[in-house]
Amino acid sequence: MNKSPSKRGSCGGWSPSVARRNMRFLWSVENDKLDGVGFSLTFTVQTCPETAQDWSRLVRYVSEALMRGTKVSPSAMRLHWVTEWQKRGVPHLHGAVYFAQEAVEAAGGASAMEHRLVSVWTHLAASYGAQKWSQTVKHIYDALGWSQYVAKHAARGARHIQRSSHCLPSGWQGQTGRMWGKSGVWPVAEALKFEFGNMAAYAAFRRLMRSYSKAQARVEMNAARSALVQA
C-alpha cells in the first residue's frame, strides 16, 4: 500500500508503474464479451493548454460528455482513454468508446457516429484550435479491431517517444494529471496467480507463455493479411 500517494493533478507523467497499470487493464479485457459498437479516437489540439490542469479539465469534460450523452451523440456504454504527447510538446488524446447498437443506428449508423464524435471534441476543445480535419475516429469492426487498439496502447511503455517526459509541454513537469482512465462497465477477467516452487519452473512457464503469445500474434497477423487480400 502506498502510504503517501500523489494527489491527482500532480502526477509526473508516464512512469513505468502507470504504464503497467494501463497495460494490465487492457490485457484483462475479454474482447469476445465486448458488446455494442466501438470506435477508436485520436483527438488533437492546435494550441497547447497553458497548464496541465486545463488539459485535465478538458479530458474530464469530454469523458463526461461521452458517457452522459450530448445533443449530437448518445450516451456511451464504456470508455478508455490515454494522454500522449506530440514531438512539438502538445498533448493529444487516444481512446476507445462503445455505444449500444440501437443508439448508433438511431444516430444514423457508424459513419454518422464518427462525425458526431468529432463534433463533440471540436466543440469542447474549440478554445485550443481543434479542427475537424485533424481528428481521427474509426469504427472498431470486431475483436481484431480491439486487439489492434490493445496492441498499440498496451505495448507502449513509459519510454515511448509519445510518453517521454522530454516531450512534456513547458511548465507541465511534475504536474501532468492522470495519464489514462476508464469509465463504464468493462468485461474483465479476474487476475490469475501462480506459485512456482523454484526459478526453473518459473523460467519454463515464461518460455511457454512467450511462445503462446507469439503464436497468437502470428494467427491474428495472418487473419488481418487475408482480410486485406480479400478486400
Helix content: 40-55%
Order of H and E elements: HEHEEHHEHEH
Record field, number of beta strands = 5
End-to-end Cα distance, whole Å, is 51 Å
| Percent of residues in β-strands | 15-25%
The radius of gyration over CA amounts to: 19 Å
Descriptive overview:
Residues 41-151 form the Replication-associated protein ORF2/G2P domain. This is Replication-associated protein ORF2/G2P domain-containing protein. This protein has a five-stranded antiparallel sheet, with helices on both faces. The chain is α+β, with helices and mostly antiparallel strands. It has helices spanning 16-28, 52-68, 101-106, 110-124, 143-155, 199-230; strands spanning 37-44, 78-85, 91-99, 136-140, 180-184. A hairpin with a 5-residue loop joins strand 2 and strand 3 (91-99).
